[in-house]
Amino acid sequence: MTPSQEPQPSSPGKSSAGIPVAVAVPETRRSLFRHLIWLVPMAALAASIVFSWLGTRDRGPVIVIHAAHGFGVGEGDPVRYLGIDVGVVRSVRLAPSGDEASISLEVQLAKDAGDLARAGTQFWVVRPQLSLDSIDGLETIIGARYITLYPGPKNAERRTQFTALAEPPLADEIRGGMGLEIVLDAPTRFGIQSGAGITYRGVRIGTVIAVGLASDATSVEVRVRIREAYAQLVREGSVFWETGGFEFGLSLTGGLDIDLDSLRTALIGGVAMATPVQSGAAVTTGTRFPLAADVKEEWLEWAPALPLGSELLPAGVALPRLLRATLTWEEGRILRSKYTLAGWMHATPAGLIGPWDMLRLPEDARDGRAILSVAGRSFDMGQLAAPGVERLESAPLGLLSPGLFGEAWEGLLQSQEGTGGAVAQHRALTAPEDLILFRDVGRDPLGIDASRLRIEGDRVTVDRRIAISEDWHGALAMARSDGAVVGVVMSSEDEVAIFTIP
Q1: pTM (global) more than 0.85
Q2: Residues 6+ apart with CB under 8 A from 47
Q3: For domain 305-321+417-502, which architecture applies?
Q4: Are strands 476-479 and 485-491 parallel, antiparallel or unpaired?
Q5: Residue-wise pLDDT tens digits, 420-455
Q6: DSSP structure class, residue 454
Q7: pLDDT tens, 16-65?
Q8: How far is residue 373's CA from residue 387's CA, in Å, rounded to a whole number?
Q9: CB 140 within 8 A of CB 146
Q10: CATH 2.40.10: which residues of the chain?
């Protein structure tokens, strides 16, 4: 065999003739391939878990809302609270329950809204609704329906199952346990519907929550919620009557004039209440009263002084009562002009305290006369002299002697000391602190933040940016911390100041 004919090494996997042949692969390489093949699905599974976790870490709990009707809510529609999205509807399905079917809405809440899923939270579907007062859900005419809610008490337990309200709750009903809830028993419905107002001297103080038959069907029960600020008006002797119907007037110049508030009452009914002077104790939730069909004239004459607004003060502190006072006089000889200065006065054991400009004779008063009217009495300030009236030290306050009221003073003093707690004590205002200003019981109090006060000696001035009208002249300033009377408000066109009672 010549050198050119010597055997040549063959390529792997091929014979010397170029024919493919099987090549043995080491066991270790086959094992490595087998393990690599299994890593692919495991990596895919791990990636799926990671992506799933990343997608759900910002999600809150999943809850189920049961509703009698879906009102067009569908998958992907939002759940909103205070105008922002706090969740989304994941699914809507029919859920048979006994003889009737209902709707089950599965809702995914956002992570920061998870606390809303607690006992007492109310859900309902927002949809277009036309009522006498307003048009609600107007945005859902074109856009999608959505679910909204009102959260339950903050410390309530977490829940995952809820029942939606068939109708949006009334404004007073949303307040939950706040206020006073009573029941009125009536022989008939009187046309009263949920949402009808409860009024006291024409001012709305509550709302009819529900109307239905009594358990024995012998009468109609009208469930009423009185707002917390007015709960003290309802006493053991209070009376209630139905105020249906409306008022209208017809004149040649003005044409037909219809009272819209009365028209509202005619359509959904209304209830008015009154409380006598000898009214008894304040009632508690669940108290029942009869509902009369008509009002008695004597009820309209009742005018008790009741401690509204006392919930703004510490427990056990009653509001002092204030008296409305007016000083009237005339000026000029030929062209006469009549002037009136109005304000408030406060009865104390030492006498009736009020602004000094109401207890002195104006310099330009005609014939040296000015008449002060207060507590059902009239005094000629031109003839009244000490000790009937005197100025209190350096403060612009004056004192009207108790002797001017004779035997009626004790009764007047007792009626002015407040009810429902200890009589408020007097003290000086030595440093700025949060205050509450009070006038009479029929008007809302006014809160003043400590940052709005500036103390200059015996004068405490109030920031001019706080809107305090001259009608606060003589009102009392009370401390939020302990309920003490810290001064009398002096209101003028130039400034508002508070002076401590000496």
Answers
A1: no
A2: none
A3: Beta Barrel (2.40)
A4: antiparallel
A5: 444 568 888 888 998 888 887 656 677 788 888 998
A6: E
A7: 555 555 555 555 555 655 655 666 666 666 666 655 555 555 678 999 99
A8: 18
A9: yes
A10: 305-321+417-502
